[in-house]
Design goal:
- By secondary structure, this protein is α/β, with parallel strands linked by helices.
- It is built from 11 helices and 8 strands.
- The protein has helices at residues 31-34, 59-66, 81-84, 100-116, 131-142, 170-177, 197-205, 213-219, 221-232, 264-272, 296-318, and strands spanning 39-44, 87-92, 120-125, 145-150, 180-190, 208-212, 236-242, 278-285.
- It has an 8-stranded parallel sheet with strand order 2-1-3-8-7-4-5-6, with helices on both faces.
- The radius of gyration is 18 Å and the shape is globular.
- The termini are far apart.
- 55% of the residues are buried.
């Protein structure tokens, strides 16, 4: 924040070329340069919880590099997000790559510290293991939150090789720990083979509704988004985006790609449709740049984080407490095709 109280925005690209200078998210100031922030963009370079291809530890910096091309006005939401509230890059959380339990504790502590300042978090992973400590920290501040989870996979499995904390288990743990509101849990983009029907049965018992990628294609973005908004109601909302929700044609740079995913346009339009929801924080995970081509995945990820950040800054500027005309409740909790 400047001395006049005006948010400090990105570096002026008419004076400093986009490819020059430090690669902070969207060329925004560092947190130590502004003192405090309304939205903290924070990296978690951790991928020791993956079950297939590693490399997401490099995702945050790849997203930052791709975000150099983001501009200060978002026409899709008719907003200049970096002028509405202070957004700053809080750097990376230094986590132990050899001890998952310690890493989870470190992420949780770092999130607690940032949230205690009043900031909302836009976290760049890293693998999906980090969603659990982030949800713990957010729930301490807001109570159990509605969860909107974009992913090709359920991530509600019990263990992998006996390990309870992996990128495939965070949301089962979140339900078990009571940090999410089981009346408002939704997966979007689910697809691909499973280990068995029990995976779906267990997921439904936890309270999740599923919108598959095929549902988005058949029903359309507007219908799906309306159903999601009804399910979220006026609850505090946490959004978790695994970039593999996108089809590999749009996001090849990820650890567990699955055919038949969303287009980047579908994902961005669904997020834009959440305007007015009480988005308290979000994460974007599983970008693995070693498998990327022409920065396709990191570009899609940078735009996804931009839309989420815009939603948060609009809400901060409006001082709104919930979606207009929306109340608690929503669609039925279970089954493929339900939000």
């Amino acid at each position: 924040m400047s001395s006049t109280g005006t948010p400090r925005g990105p570096v002026d690209s008419s004076r400093v070329p986009r490819y020059a200078g430090p690669a902070t998210f969207a060329r925004l100031p560092r947190l130590d340069e502004v003192g405090r922030t309304d939205v903290a963009v924070v990296g978690v370079p951790f991928d020791s919880g993956v079950s297939y291809r590693p490399g997401a530890r490099f995702g945050g910096n790849a997203i930052r590099e791709a975000s150099r091309l983001l501009r200060p006005y978002n026409p899709a939401q008719d907003a200049a997000p970096f002028a509405l509230a202070q957004v700053a890059d809080a750097g990376d959380v230094a986590v132990n790559p050899f001890d998952i339990g310690e890493a989870v504790t470190t992420v949780e502590g770092a999130a607690d510290e940032l949230l205690a300042t009043g900031a909302r978090l836009m976290t760049l992973g890293g693998d999906h293991t980090i969603a659990l400590p982030l949800l713990r920290a957010v729930a301490r501040r807001h109570g159990p939150v509605a969860l909107l989870h974009f992913d090709a996979h359920l991530d509600t499995w019990d263990t992998y090789f006996g390990a309870a904390y992996t990128h495939g288990t965070p949301f089962r743990r979140a339900v078990e720990e009571g940090v999410v509101d089981t009346a408002a849990l939704s997966h979007v983009g689910i697809r691909g083979p499973l280990y068995g029907r029990k995976d779906l049965d267990d997921d439904e018992k936890m309270g999740f509704g599923i919108v598959t990628s095929a549902d988005v294609m058949r029903r359309g973005v507007d219908e799906v988004t309306d159903q999601l908004r009804q399910r979220i109601g006026d609850r505090p909302l946490y959004v978790s985006v695994d970039i593999d929700v996108l089809d590999p044609a749009h996001a090849p740079g990820t650890g567990t790609p699955e055919a038949g995913g969303l287009t980047s346009r579908e994902l961005l339009e669904i997020l834009r449709g959440l305007a007015g929801c009480r988005l308290v924080s979000a994460d974007l995970v599983e970008v693995a740049p070693a498998y990327d081509h022409a920065e396709m995945t990191s570009v899609a990820a940078s735009h996804t984080a931009y839309e989420l950040t815009t939603l948060m800054t609009r809400q901060i500027a409006d001082g709104s407490t919930g979606p207009e005309g929306a109340g608690p409740g929503g669609a039925s909790p279970g089954g493929t095709g339900s939000a």
